[in-house]
């Protein structure tokens, strides 16, 4: 009896333990950079760690939707010896990771050997500050929302995350999940590849605050970008600087310990499109750390040094530029069949061929043959339409890659590419992607979707990677997207200044591209420069328009032809937004980011853009001309409606605009606002006087010029407020006002 009971128990234990042993052959864990911080519109990295506790294994590691056993989003070959541990990373948009439940799977052939489901992943919608500091309370004052009536989106709703240095990624795109990175007094070491990614991120628009002692280990990699006052003058005392910035005339302390006595408390350098803020004291130390006006001090620091503006610009960015894929889907030399032609063909069959065949068979007394001949005629006609029509649509396999390059300096460039692929006969094929880029498949519509037909593959070295499209129907377009950094593309050399009403100077093409067309974009004013070959120099002398009305937006016009669609899509790719001076070149050069393994014709359309910094003119003045600096809507009253990006239909109400006058490194001397132009004369015009705290009415035919009295109208954010009103019932179209700023360059 006992023997049988023992055998039954042993058999049950054997059945129970065998699956556990199989499941425990591998330890699978995962993590994401930045301590798990993710934003839904950015890229992230899924780092997978696998340890093999069993026999040698050769197979694939996949990231797959849980509800699908045969489809993977990403896959990589993997070989594991007994007791070996390997790390594998998948780079993908956060949206793709979060859209549906996913699992990490080890697969041997068609068999799923082991699975680990992804859980506890979440995204942040508010602004995010990453802090590296020995103290957990460092920079806590930045998380408090502002009570000021106009501070802008970036001044509010920050979430602070303390980070370990090893949580920093080595790709700058992954740092886009942060809005600010603050490095204080930390004993941790930041590796060279991490520091390089941080510097790239700043050049792409990030904000880096350096608040540690220069001798601290975490500060060491950033010594080359640390802002420093080089002017031969004694800075104001720390107490004077704090009083000036905080608005508190007599702070309740007599001294503030600083790292370097010859440097100001705060100093900012522009690095590419981003900012580096140097803080010359320990933000966790007394007497400032617990001072009741510390928050007010830092709000003013962010405003004064244009950090808030930089953050607002960054928050408007997205990870995938869908205008690239939309344009790439309009492949050149591909002529989709007209709907009208298709309708005519089927009408011919329904109204002519089928009835004629029936009447002929009836006449010869063979109506029963109709059951075979008429369907056969339909099959023959369909085959003819396919064989003849296919050649009319496209003669050969083809691809179209549209790329947008942002030159950050003479060596570094940010690249985004969308590509579409079409094979005449369909089937399965691979598209190899540059291993320096993050690449994903998209839906044929050109948008992100986890249900995309392709999947990302890579070998174990991750140097051979790409996208595989399987069982593609004939004449079907497939789409992919890639993002990454490139080196050695060169830059434009520009020497441009504004004197009077003219933009003067020169542009030299020192990039690696020959451009079929080049433009200077001055706000909304586009100046065509024509072709520009490598090494070629062009002289510029163009009138700056005092008032510029943008043309009607293409998005409001009905599009009927492929050519119209392509023209609109190209304008969307060329768009640089408002309030900037950039040079743009258009080339047909191949960047070799995507390489399909089928033979065919490849087309390329590459847009290269670089911001331009204006230089002092002969009077040693820097002039920011009309339309170049930002104007935002501060408040509205009454009935209004945006008729375009920069025009408002207004009745029985008013719109208050904030003119962003103050600029880093500029001592403003003159501001001109051409409200005497005809579009503004029909409105009541007012300017806010900060000295009196009242609105001042402007005459109907008058513009505004501020010089010695400028300080009376600048608010604490460095803006001038303009209010335009229409008390009548009739809707009037109000264009955004423009202004010009003239000033002198400063060292701070």
| Oligomerization | single chain
Biggest sheet strand order reads 7-6-3-4-18-19-16-27
Mean model confidence by pLDDT: 84
The count of domains is 5
How far is the first residue's CA from the last residue's CA?
A: 93 Å
Number-wise, the strands total 38
Largest sheet: 8 strands, mixed
Spatial shape: globular
Transmembrane segments: 341-361, 368-389
Keywords: Membrane, Signal, Transmembrane, Transmembrane helix
InterPro entries: Class_I_gatase-like
Signal peptide: 1-22
Detailed description of the structure:
The chain has 11 helices and 38 strands. By secondary structure, it is of the alpha+beta class. The chain folds into 5 domains: 92 residues, Immunoglobulins (Immunoglobulin-like, Sandwich); 189 residues, Rossmann fold; 235 residues, no CATH class; 55 residues, no CATH class; 117 residues, Jelly Rolls (Sandwich). About 4% of the residues have low confidence.
Task: Please outline what is shown here.
The chain is an alpha+beta fold and about 750 residues long. It is about 20% helix and about 35% strand.
Task: Offer a few descriptive terms.
eight-stranded mixed beta sheet; membrane; 19% helix; 748 residues; alpha+beta; Immunoglobulin-like; transmembrane; Class_I_gatase-like
């Amino acid at each position: 009896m006992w023997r049988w009971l023992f055998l039954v128990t042993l058999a049950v234990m054997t059945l129970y333990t065998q699956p556990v042993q199989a499941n425990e052959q591998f330890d699978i864990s995962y993590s994401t950079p930045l301590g798990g911080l993710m934003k839904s519109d950015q890229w992230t990295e899924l780092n997978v760690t696998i340890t093999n506790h069993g026999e040698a294994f050769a197979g694939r590691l996949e990231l797959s939707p849980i509800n699908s056993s045969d489809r993977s989003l990403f896959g990589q070959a993997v070989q594991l010896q007994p007791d070996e541990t390997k790390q594998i990373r998948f780079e993908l948009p956060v949206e793709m990771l979060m859209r549906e439940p996913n699992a990490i799977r080890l697969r041997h052939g068609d068999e799923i050997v082991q699975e680990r489901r992804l859980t506890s992943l979440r995204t942040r919608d508010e602004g995010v500050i990453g802090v590296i500091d020995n103290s957990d309370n460092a920079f806590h004052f930045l998380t408090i929302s502002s009570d000021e009536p106009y501070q802008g989106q970036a001044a509010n709703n920050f979430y602070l995350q303390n980070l370990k240095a090893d949580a920093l990624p080595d790709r700058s795109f992954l740092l886009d999940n942060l809005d600010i990175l603050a490095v204080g007094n930390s004993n941790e070491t930041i590796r060279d590849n991490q520091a390089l990614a941080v510097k790239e991120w700043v050049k792409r628009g990030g904000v880096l605050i350096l608040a540690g002692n220069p001798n601290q280990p975490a500060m060491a990699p950033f010594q080359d970008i640390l802002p420093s006052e080089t002017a031969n003058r004694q800075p104001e005392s720390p107490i004077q600087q704090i009083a000036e910035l905080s608005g508190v005339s007599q702070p309740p302390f007599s001294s503030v310990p600083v790292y370097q006595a010859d440097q100001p408390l705060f100093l900012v350098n522009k690095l590419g499109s981003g900012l580096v803020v140097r803080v010359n004291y320990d933000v966790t130390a007394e007497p400032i750390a617990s001072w009741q006006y510390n928050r007010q001090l830092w709000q003013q620091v962010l405003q004064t040094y244009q950090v808030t503006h930089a953050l607002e610009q960054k928050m408007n960015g997205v990870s995938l530029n869908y205008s690239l894929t939309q344009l790439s889907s309009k492949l050149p030399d591909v002529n989709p069949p007209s709907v009208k032609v298709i309708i005519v063909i089927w009408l011919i069959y329904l109204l002519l061929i089928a009835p004629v065949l029936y009447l002929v068979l009836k006449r010869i007394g063979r109506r029963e043959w109709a059951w075979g001949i008429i369907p056969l005629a339909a099959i023959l006609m369909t085959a003819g339409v396919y064989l003849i029509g296919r050649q009319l649509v496209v003669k050969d396999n083809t691809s179209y890659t549209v790329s947008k390059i942002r030159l950050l300096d003479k060596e570094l460039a940010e690249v985004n590419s969308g590509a579409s692929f079409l094979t005449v006969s369909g089937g399965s094929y691979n598209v190899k992607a540059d291993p320096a880029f993050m690449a994903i498949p998209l839906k044929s519509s050109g948008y992100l979707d986890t249900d995309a037909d392709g999947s990302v593959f890579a070998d174990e070295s991750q140097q051979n990677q790409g996208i595989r499209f399987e069982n593609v129907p004939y004449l079907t377009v497939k789409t992919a997207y890639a993002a990454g950094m490139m080196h050695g593309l060169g830059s434009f050399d520009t020497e441009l200044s504004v004197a009077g009403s003219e933009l003067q100077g020169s542009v030299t093409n020192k990039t690696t591209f020959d451009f079929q067309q080049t433009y200077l974009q001055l706000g909304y004013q586009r100046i065509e420069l024509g072709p520009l070959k490598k090494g070629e120099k062009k002289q510029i002398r163009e009138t700056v328009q005092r008032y510029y009305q943008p043309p009607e937006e293409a998005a409001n016009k009905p599009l009927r032809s492929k050519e119209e669609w392509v023209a609109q899509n190209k304008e969307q790719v060329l768009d640089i937004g408002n309030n900037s001076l950039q040079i743009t070149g258009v080339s047909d050069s191949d960047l070799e980011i995507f390489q399909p393994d089928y033979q065919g014709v490849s087309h390329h359309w590459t847009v290269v853009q670089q911001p331009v910094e204006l230089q002092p003119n002969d009077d040693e003045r820097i002039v920011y001309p009309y339309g170049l600096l930002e104007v935002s809507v501060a408040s509205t009253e009454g009935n209004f409606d945006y008729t375009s990006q920069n025009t408002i239909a207004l009745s029985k109400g008013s719109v208050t605009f904030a003119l962003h006058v103050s600029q880093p490194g500029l001592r403003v001397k003159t501001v001109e606002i051409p409200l005497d132009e005809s579009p503004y004369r029909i409105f009541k015009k007012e300017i806010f006087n900060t000295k009196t705290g009242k609105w001042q009415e402007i005459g109907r035919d008058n513009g505004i010029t501020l010089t010695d009295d400028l300080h009376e109208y600048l608010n604490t954010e460095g803006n001038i407020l303009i209010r335009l009103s229409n008390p009548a019932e009739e809707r009037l179209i109000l264009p955004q006002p423009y202004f010009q700023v003239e000033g002198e360059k400063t060292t701070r």
